[in-house]
Structures are given as structure tokens and as C-alpha cells.
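In response to a reviewer's request, we include the raw inputs and outputs for one of the modeled complexes. The two entities were modeled together in a single run.
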Amino acid sequence: MIGPAARLCLALLLAGLAACSTHRLQEAEAARSRVEIARTPFFPQTDHHCGPAALATILAASGADTTPAALTNEVYLPKRRGSLQAELLASARRHARVAYVLDPSLASLLAELERDQPVLVLQNFGLASLPLWHYAVVIGYDRERDAFLLRSGRHEQQQLAAARFLGTWRRAGNWGVIALRPGELPADGTALRFLTAVDALDAQGHHEVAMPSYESAVRRWPEESLAWFALGNNRAALGLNSAAESAYREVLQRDAGYLPALNNLALLMARRGCRTPALEMLESVRAEADNGPYAAEIADSLREIRSLAAPAAPPSSCP
Amino acid sequence: MSMRLGLTRTVVGVSLAALVATGLPSTARAGMISTSEAVAAQAAPERVANLSKVQATLARADVRTRLQALGVDPADAATRAAALPDADLARLANGMDKLPAGGDDSLLAVVGIVFLVLLLLDYLDVIHVFSNHRR
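The model returned the following C-alpha cells for the whole complex.
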């Protein structure tokens, strides 16, 4: 029989082994021996302003002209003595950047660092149940020393043991964000993740700023219906209706039953006089759409199209 | 320097609700399906399906009449439904599946509507009849 003391030792030993096997940068397949994005600017934080300082760091690194002092009003909540993640993202968008939240994995973090993209991270230096939050910017790693390099607080170059950093990062949900310039793509991740980030910028009213990012998305993910659909919506929002129609048609060539593209294409067609083909398109999918998430919109579109006066002579360009 | 915040979940919940809400048919660009809505449908298809089922029920004339008689604004109820956590929304949508479709005056249908309205109000935190699943 094993005594309590012996069992405790065993538990600690196993925990230690687990820590070694997951925390070593070498085993995480860090591609380079050392990465340090030295051009990343440094803004030493004042008081509790780690949010504005970290945000200014990644924004300035991406070429935006800003400082922590200029951002404090946008993201700092005096009563909470801190900043909320959602506000950091919204503020980055106000500076015409796509605030892209990384896939919460070490592989994605390393991939961004290896192409010289500094990453704003949330860390928890407390416990899961009694958190002590902190924002910092990871600017590289050192594989031999098994450490991450950060701009953090008042430290221009903080070297944090990989196990320590990854522990604080994991307790914050492995949350990391990068500021992408219009048209710039992340190192990895899915089309859905990228389009979510671009749409958030677009939805804040920055249609023109978002456009190059949608164009990059269809180049990287040409088979992705959502990417073409999003590009079509962006063009429609900018009043480029004929270009929007072509983007919707790209979707339908790949996936003839993609309801959002059918609906929006039919509306644009009907509004320029092609009422009959638009009605036919929607009538043909109505039954299929009926119990799905787009049933209400498709019913609305049918009503709108039917209420449009039939043109004396439909334009010759109707398909 | 550090700070405390325990609002991550709330923020995520509120943004998801906003995301879903912006895609609802009553938005400014009438009829056009927004990218946010398509993104939400692809990211959380079950949630979107459940929400559209609940919203369709809230749009039924018999249900709206009953809600208004109880002093509940149907539009307010729809907003609350969009903010429900995934699990509650799924249970609510599941409860609706088991009810008669409505449209006839049989006793069963009337009982069904009353049950439906009570179920809605319970989940939307207006009254608590069936459960103490919160607070």
C-alpha cells in the first residue's frame, strides 16, 4: 500500500513531467532558434495602463500613428482599473486595423512570431478562481533558453521562462490578438476566423478599409463560399452592385444551394429590373429554406420583389 | 500592472447576441442577409437554428397577443431570447418542438399556447414557473 506522502510525491512528479513535455519550446516545434521582433516600439506603461500600452505597441508596430496616452480614453476604464478585451479590439478597428484573434494555440502564436508579427496577449498571474489580469506583447522567443520575449509593463525586453509564460497565458484562455493592415492575412487559421475579424471592422462602418481584406480572403480561400459572399456584401455596401453580383455568382458556381448568396443576388437583380429571374431563383429554394435560419429573410425578399413594379421592358442584361 | 476582470464570458455572450441580433430581418438593409448572420450561422449553426425557431414562435400572432395581455413587449422578448446562453436556448427550442403547431381552436391548441407563453416567460426571466435554473 502507498502512503499519503508517497502519493503526493507521485502526483507532483507527474505534474512536473507533464509540464516539461508540453512547455519546452523545442518540443513545440519552434522553427527558429531565436526570434526577436526588435522593431516593435516600446511604450512603458504608467499606473494600471497595461491595456493602452500593449495596444499602442501592436498598432504602432503595424504602422498606425498612436500612443498609449491617445488610446487611454478609448480603452481604459478607471473604475475597473483596466481594459476589456472587446474594447481593445474595437479601438484597433478605429485605427483601420483588422483585430484578428488568434486560434488559441501555441502553434498559432509561434507562427505569427516567426513572420515578425508581434502578438498582444492576455495573461493571468493569479489563479483561475482569483485572477490577476495583465496585457503584454510577445515579440519573440529563445529556443535554447526556453523562454519568451515580451514588451511588458515597464520592461522593454522581459524574458519569461516558457513554462511560466504558457501557464499565465493558458489561464487567460490562450487569448492573443494581432493588428493586421488592410489586405494583410494571418499566418494560419480558418477563413471563418479571419472573416469574423474583417466583418467586425466592416460592421463598424469601415467598408472601404475592409475591402482589401475580403479580396485577400478570396485569394487565399478561393473555394470558401463565405469569403465570396462577404466580398459581395462589402461591394454592395459600397454601392458596387454589379461587382457584388459577380461575387455572389462565384459562390453559386461552387455551391448552387448557398441561400445567403441566392437571396442577396436575387434582390440586387430585382432592384435593377430583372424581376422575373430573381423571383424564379427564390421560388425554387423557398421550400428548402423554410425551416432554416434564413426563412424570414427569404420570405421578406420575395415580398419585396413581388411588390416591385414589373418594368415595361426588362433590361437586356438579365440572365 | 495588473487588473481584475471577470466579464470575459459576459462580453462574449453579449457580442454573440449582438452578432445574431444584427442579422435579424428587422435591420436597416431590408432583405439583404448580412455577413455577420452568415458568419454566425457557420460558427454556431445550432444556436442560430434554435434562435430562429424561438423567434418564429415569438412572431406568431396568437403568442404575441398572449404576451401583450401579460404586459410583455414581444420585441423585448425577442431581444432577450437573442441574449440567452446556448444551453437555455436549446432547451427552449426543444420545448417548442413538443407543442401543437397552433392555428386551430381546439382545447389542446389553447393549452399549448398558454404553456408556450409560460415557457418563454420563464426562460426570458420574466417569471419562474418550471424551474429555478437561474438565481
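As requested, we also summarize the result in words. The radius of gyration of chain A is 25 Å. The first strand of chain A starts at residue 34 and ends at 36.
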